[in-house]
Structure formats: C-alpha cells, structure tokens
Write the structure tokens for this entry.
Amino acid sequence: MSVLPAAFLPTLVRRERASLAATLLAPPIALAVATILNLGLYVLLGRDPVAVVHAMLLEPFLSWTSFSEVLLKAAPLLLIAQGLAIGFRAKVFNIGAEGQFILGAIFASAIPVWFPQATGQWIWPLMLLLGALGGGLWASLTAFWRVRLNANEILVSLMLSLVAAQLLNYLLLGPWKDPNGFNFPQSVMFQYDAMVPILISGTRVNVSLLLTLALSAAAWVFMQKSFTGYKLQVGGLAPRAAGYAGFNEGWAIWLSLLIGGFAAGLAGAAEVAGPLGQLQRSISTGYGYAAIIVAYLGGLHPLGIVFSALLMAVLYIGGDNAMVSANLPIAAVRVFQGSLLLAYLIAVAFVRHRLEWPRAAVRSQS
C-alpha cells in the first residue's frame, strides 16, 4: 500500500515549555550561523573573509575610540528597540519607528531653528521632550486608524515613515534650509546650549546613553513588575482570555504605539542634539528598521535587548570599517544584519517547537 509523500513530512509541534538553556543559546547560535553564511558570500564576492570578519567583528573593540562609537550607535538602537518590544509582546506591530524617529528629530530641531540665539541649560532637555512628543504624535496617527477603522498597523506605520521622510525633505529644501549652508539640504548648526552634554571626555558619547539605560531599566520594571505591563503581555499571548478579563484591546493598541513612538522620537531628538548638531537628511539612517532586528534578537526582553543593541552597533561600526579596509559593499553589511535576524527566528522556532514525524512514516520505515 502506497503512502502519500506528505505523510512522510514532519510537522512543528509547540513544546509545552521552552528550555531556558536553548533560549539563551539561540542568539549566539544565530550569530555563528549568520557569520558562516556570510563568509561564503564574501568568498563569492572575491573578498578576503578573514579581513572582513576582523574589520567587522574585532576592530570595534581594539581601540577606545572605536568602542566609544559603538556606544554612540547603540544608544538610539537600544532606546527604539525597548519601545518597540513592549508593543511586539502585546502583538501590536509598530514598523514605523523610522518615521517616528524623524518626527522626533524635526520637533526637537524647532527650538534651535526658530530661536538660534537662545541660551540656557533648559534648551536641550526641552528638545528631548519635544522630540518624544513628536514621535508619540506620529505614532498616534497609526493608533487612530488601527482602533477606529481597524487598519493594519504594520502598513499604516510603514507608509507614514515615507511621509515623514518627505516632510523632512520639504523642510530642509524649503523653510528650514540654512541660507549660509552652500545650498546643502540641512538646517543651521545648533548653538552650544542645544547640544546634549558629553558624557565621556574625548568621545562623542553623550548623556543620552545614561537616559537610555535608565529607560531600559524602566522598561524591565514596566513589563515584569507592573499590572499594566502584565495586561499588555496577556493581551498578546491570549487575546480571548484578556477580553474575558475585561482588558481593553483599543487601550492596549494606543499605549503600545505611543510608547514606541515616544522612544523613537526621543532617540531622534538625541541624535540631532548630539552627534549631528543640526537637522540633516542623513538623520534617516535606518535606525527604526534596525531596531526591529535588535528587539527580536534580544528575545523581546529588556535585558536581552541591551546585548543585541551592542551587537548591532558593532555591526554598524565594523561594517564601516570593512567597507574601507576590505572594500566590502554596503549591501553586504545589510545582508549580514538581515541574515542574523532570519537565523535567530529559525533558531527560536526550534526552541519553541519540536519536529514530530507522522506515525504513518514511522510504520512504513519499520
């Protein structure tokens, strides 16, 4: 008696409980797999894989100057990822952090652009606050369409990122363009009091890193210790149970998106008031999209996100090094980031599930 081929195919069956050891091993295994796959890609591109790996993964740690740049890159990635992870755990998928990041940068830049002669230590804290409000406002558009019209938050937030980029172009090519900027699409340089104070002398690392770490600790307390965080997690894991318990889905959507927008907008404000010192079109560097990888690579856990943000920052700085020293194209760096996320998602799938072979296949083999 013949057996259909489908009967021999295994299926994924969810485990009753995922192993803690396997969960902790998933990120390093994903990094190892992604590294091996990309080594093959570098060979096909005709690059020296040893030189690429040295430049990308080792050079960022070989000098204090390089590592300080890693910390500088890690701060916005960590901040945005912490905000996104709260929503992701509630099954609210905010993919538009890039647009919220841009709006935060725009709102923060309004003060030094409109009041270039203003002085006082109140300026940069107010800029950070305005940036957070700008990101939250942009995220609220997605929340409104999701709650009132049941529009998909993934598509709405993603499309709004494109709108934000065009708004940035309009401002820098129009009313906010620096008249003395040699026709470059950028704002005036910000005054001293509009800059976030330097945290580590001799580097570009500023006080926003401390703020990011404090907010990461707050994210852990919120998700692990507060009743509100518990409601968001229950709504994501068991929506029907949350409904029976009286948890409001619309409220969860609003809160998740606003938290993500607040974090992304704050990161955008810290970027223009920190290493850039002015509003530029290059503010849109993909932090909002890379933070999605950071959030998932960290297992959507506040502590894990800290380590994944550092890893992604190393890839950013190491990728720049590899482009110079090993002549690696920028696309190859982005492939590494994407393959790292893919390898992690596959690893997590096997952590949470097991392969089960159909009984028909077992009988036929015996």
The radius of gyration is 23 Å. The mean pLDDT is 88.
